[in-house]
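Sharing a chain and its predicted structure for anyone who wants a worked example. Both blocks are below, sequence first, tokens second.
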Amino acid sequence: MTRPPAPDDTDDTDDAALFRASIGPVRELPAPPAPPSKPKPRPNTRMRDLDEEDARSEFQRALDAAPLLAGDTLSHRRDEVPPRVLRRLARGEYAAQDEIDLHLAASAQAEAMLRRFLREAMGAGFTCVRVIHGKGLHAPDGVPTLKNLVDRLLRQRADVLAFHSAPPAQGGTGAVLVLLSAR
């Protein structure tokens, strides 16, 4: 019979081989998944920010603008409308296909009436309409409320291409001719 080797005679490699032989064949575990990566940054909203800034500056410009007075002329055109169209509108060369008179209406009522009128005019296919707002000569503070309301509302609407105070024979500074975009 053989005697087991003395403790100082053991070799570490023999112990490892003995251990592997005793447990049998081993399969390697799959590699652990990679740790989650840093989340991607949100997309840059540069164009939205620019649009917001433009809208804010336009709104601020409208607030800072001095109100129109009784004898002031209303005049505005979009960039895509040639200046000659505005000159023709000022001379009354476009025939108004419909009109609305806002005299004696309260501000909120006049605004609702004007919005409805423009919507119906667009629906009917009209391209030129007249809005009679009055000159505001009897305004208590000297600032014609309806005239300023009409100016502000028309500038905001995308379907309004241009507008100008009517010639004297059609109401002068108490009315405005409005060019609407085609349907």
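Comments welcome. The helical segments are 12-23, 46-64, 83-90, 107-124, 145-156.
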